[in-house]
């Protein structure tokens, strides 16, 4: 694939950042109660930090994060103290769900300026985001860069885990050219149909999505019909991309429902599994947490490693969490190399290991 | 570390985005239509009691439905007409559902707009025509008094006799107009 110089792209990101900041001020002035939390965060914000992660952090409320979530605890990378976080949470709790919904809609429009899945960028670009910001983050990125060469950003619309997972999975299969690997991926995908049925979902909800979108795309990948540009087009096309996200959400929910004894204890007292899936898994734009990652990787038998970067941990160290579906992967009998994602509070992107 | 092969970015990316917008329009309506056809088929095979729905005209994006008040509630014996308008990105967005028969109810305003979480922020693609109508049917008998669109109805809910009079008054007036 012919990849040219990237100056234009970085310029466009910068200009979008300033636009975002401007309109976020406008939004804030309409929503009086949120002004202090938004603008307060803005001031502490590293001015060059990528705008993709911001709206997510701001919109994270207690309501949308029933599972104890690292994104609440560290709603701003690095500089936010615990006291401020608590104050912000209290303010956000006062906003009625209607206001909250309208506010999230207005932020959504800003977020939509980023493609659903972007082209890869050198890991150095990630470092540059924090050049005038958190030292902790810079140290961590330096560490990350030792083993990782590139990052592929995903839109911060709350679907980023599913979209990043989907793209990374399809791309891994595309690149491997291993017939056996591709066939077993198709088999894993086909196995999700009885899973969804058993979990009580109506066929009309998932059957067409499976046949017309997800399976169709994976078959095209398995048949070697796609290159990187084509895969990117697929994942940048709202409808196809969102159907893939939706299907992954349904699989995640179905797995959780069918293993509720195991996972319900993690939800907290007020949530049953059905209610949790209803509000935090099946609904588009709802962020994913540990529990979602575990469920999806197990349901599809796809190993994932996630680099967790938050400002609170020790410097010069990036924590990797391994989500391996079963022991077979650890024994190395499943040949699929783990997908690698980067997590920053409230957001997932894709990472590329150095060969 | 210098950025090297990473971005054909703006040129390449812009091109990608242009080509996709064309195909999107065509594909959009196809899969939405397929989904709506499946829903229609499902309704024809198994219709929950007291509920019906059918496309209004030849346009599969506009439906009319009816909901019978649940037995043993104030709305028992009354049947309400609703319209459902499906957006082009259905089922990613909820349909716009409105009462056509005037429904005196804490969560319905005078224009028939409905305040129901699954039609707003709690919407997800697992909901469909049937489940929406079933939810509306149970909303009739179990209003959410705490966030009313019709405050008068919310206040009167505790006095069933007065409440019932209002319900009947609006129901009759509305049916006479139709």
Automatic annotation (TrEMBL), chain A:
Record-listed E.C. numbers: 3.4.19.12
Regions of compositional bias (Polar residues) in chain numbering: 58-72
Sequence ranges of Low complexity compositional bias: 48-57
PROSITE patterns the record matches: OTU
Stretches the record annotates as Disordered: 1-88
Catalyzed reactions: Thiol-dependent hydrolysis of ester, thioester, amide, peptide and isopeptide bonds formed by the C-terminal Gly of ubiquitin (a 76-residue protein attached to proteins as an intracellular targeting signal)
GO molecular function, one term: cysteine-type deubiquitinase activity
Domain spans labelled OTU: 149-354
GO BP terms in the entry: protein K48-linked deubiquitination; proteolysis
Keywords in alphabetical order: Hydrolase, Protease, Thiol protease, Ubl conjugation pathway
Pfam families registered for this protein in UniProt: Peptidase_C65
Domain of life: Eukaryota
GO cellular component terms listed in the entry, alphabetical order: nucleus
Compositional bias segments (type: Basic and acidic residues): 17-33
Protein known as: ubiquitinyl hydrolase 1
From TrEMBL, chain B:
PROSITE patterns per UniProt: UBC_1, UBC_2
Coiled-coil residue spans: none
Region (Disordered): 1-23
InterPro entries cross-referenced by the UniProt entry: Ub_conjugating_enzyme, UBC, UBQ-conjugating_AS, UBQ-conjugating_enzyme/RWD
Keywords: ATP-binding, Nucleotide-binding, Transferase, Ubl conjugation pathway
Active site, UniProt feature: 115
Domain annotation UBC core: ranges: 31-176
Pfam family, one: UQ_con
GO molecular function: ATP binding; transferase activity
Top-level division of the source organism's lineage: Eukaryota
Family: Belongs to the ubiquitin-conjugating enzyme family.
Record-given protein name: UBC core domain-containing protein
UniProt organism field: Rhizophagus clarus
């Amino acid at each position: 694939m012919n990849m040219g110089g990237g100056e234009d792209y970085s310029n466009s990101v910068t200009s979008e950042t300033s636009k975002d900041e401007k309109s976020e001020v406008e939004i804030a002035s309409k929503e009086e109660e949120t002004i202090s939390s938004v603008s307060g965060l803005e001031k502490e914000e590293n001015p060059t930090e990528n705008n993709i992660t911001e709206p997510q952090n701001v919109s994270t409320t207690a309501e949308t994060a029933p599972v104890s979530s690292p994104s609440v605890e560290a709603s701003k990378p690095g500089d936010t103290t615990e006291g401020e976080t608590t104050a912000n949470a209290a303010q956000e709790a006062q906003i009625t769900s209607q206001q909250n919904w309208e506010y999230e809609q207005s932020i959504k429009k800003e977020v939509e300026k980023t493609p659903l899945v972007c082209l890869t960028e050198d890991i150095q670009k990630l470092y540059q985001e924090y050049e005038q910001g958190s030292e902790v983050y810079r140290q961590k990125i330096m560490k990350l860069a030792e083993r990782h060469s590139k990052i592929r950003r995903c839109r911060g619309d709350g679907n980023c885990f599913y979209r990043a997972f989907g793209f990374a999975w399809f791309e891994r299969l595309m690149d491997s050219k291993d017939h056996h690997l591709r066939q077993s991926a198709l088999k894993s995908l086909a196995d999700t149909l009885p899973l969804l049925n058993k979990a009580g979902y109506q066929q009309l909800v998932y059957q067409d999505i499976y046949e017309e979108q997800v399976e169709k795309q994976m078959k095209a990948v398995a048949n070697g019909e796609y290159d990187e540009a084509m895969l990117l087009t697929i994942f940048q096309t709202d409808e196809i991309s969102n159907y893939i996200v939706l299907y992954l959400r349904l699989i995640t929910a179905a797995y959780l429902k069918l293993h509720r004894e195991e996972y319900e204890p993690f939800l907290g007292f007020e949530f049953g599994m059905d209610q949790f899936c209803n509000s935090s898994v099946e609904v588009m734009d709802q962020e994913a947490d540990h529990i979602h990652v575990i469920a999806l990787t197990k349901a599809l038998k796809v190993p994932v490693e996630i680099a967790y970067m938050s400002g609170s941990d020790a410097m010069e160290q990036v924590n990797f969490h391994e989500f391996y579906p079963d022991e077979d992967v650890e024994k190395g009998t499943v040949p699929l190399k783990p997908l690698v994602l980067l997590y920053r509070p409230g957001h997932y992107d894709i990472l590329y290991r150095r060969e | 570390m210098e950025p090297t092969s990473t971005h054909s970015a703006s040129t390449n990316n812009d091109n990608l985005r242009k080509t996709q917008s064309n195909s999107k329009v065509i594909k959009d309506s196809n899969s939405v239509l397929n989904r709506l056809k499946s829903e229609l088929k499902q309704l024809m095979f198994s219709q929950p009691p007291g509920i019906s729905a059918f496309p209004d005209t030849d346009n599969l994006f506009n439906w009319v439905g009816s909901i019978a008040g649940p037995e043993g509630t104030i709305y028992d014996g009354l049947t309400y007409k609703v319209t459902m308008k499906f957006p082009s990105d259905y089922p990613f967005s909820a349909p716009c559902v409105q009462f056509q028969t005037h429904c005196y109810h804490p969560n319905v305003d005078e224009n028939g707009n409905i305040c129901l979480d699954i039609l707003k922020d709690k919407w997800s693609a697992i909901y469909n025509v049937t489940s929406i109508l079933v939810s509306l049917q149970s909303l009739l008998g179990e209003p959410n008094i705490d966030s009313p669109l019709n405050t008068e109805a919310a206040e009167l809910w505790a006095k069933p006799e007065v409440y019932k009079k209002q319900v009947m008054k609006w129901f009759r007036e509305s049916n006479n107009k139709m």
